[in-house]
Design brief:
The protein is an alpha/beta fold and 204 residues long. The protein has four helices and 15 strands. 21% of the residues lie in helices and 38% in strands.
């Protein structure tokens, strides 16, 4: 079964990015950074999402990200689906931290339940078929709107969302040019998907 071993963010200053992610989220081997000066403007076509168990954990992670140098894109708030917000890391990556719980059930933790990579697709159905053809199994699918792949052995969950809808969800304009500044690490690589997202075999 196809899966993602990790994701690699291409950043201008890898040392600074490593310090930021260690301080902000405490992520482990599922996230790497490497140097890149590839030009990029506006929305890069993806977001990274951390799903947690309760609102106090959202607050803890968002607060530590802001303290480490992130900027607030969508302030944390309650909504009909739960509680969450969006921050932008100093390297430009958009992170959504959220929970479906409305109330805390215990003391605040910093435990992350799911690490989700959401790729913005111009044509969700075409991209879905592209990944199915490469061995990915569909876990959830909502027509042309959203697809989530079933990758139980992977530390990273892969999902597809319409590009404009993803930008709206993140709270940013949908326009952007240049490099996505992200590489997906998988034994299924190397290849590029219909939206130009690059996959490589892990070198870590």
């Amino acid at each position: 079964m196809a899966s993602i071993a990790s994701v690699t963010l291409e950043v201008a200053d890898p040392t600074a990015a490593e310090h930021f992610y260690a301080a902000a989220f405490g992520l482990g081997p599922e996230l790497h950074v490497r140097a890149s000066e590839a030009p990029t403007t506006g929305f890069r076509g993806f977001t990274l999402s951390l799903t947690v168990s309760q609102p106090s954990t959202v607050d803890s992670l968002v607060d530590s990200a802001l303290a480490a140098g992130a900027s607030s894109v969508k302030p944390v708030k309650k909504s009909f689906w739960g509680y969450g917000g969006v921050v932008q890391a100093p390297d430009g990556t958009l992170w959504k931290i959220a929970t479906s719980a409305k109330k805390d059930k215990g003391p605040a933790t910093r435990e992350i339940d799911r690490f989700v990579l959401l790729l913005g697709a111009e044509d969700v159905l075409a991209s879905k078929q592209f990944y199915v053809d490469r061995g990915f199994t569909v876990g959830k699918s909502f027509g042309r709107k959203y697809v989530e792949f079933d990758t139980p052995s992977s530390p990273v969950t892969l999902a597809l969302y319409g590009r404009r809808a993803l930008a709206k969800d993140a709270g940013v304009p949908p326009d952007g040019t240049g490099s996505h500044r992200i590489v997906l690490d998988s034994d299924n690589g190397p290849f590029s998907d219909p939206d130009g997202f690059a996959w490589e075999k892990p070198s870590h």
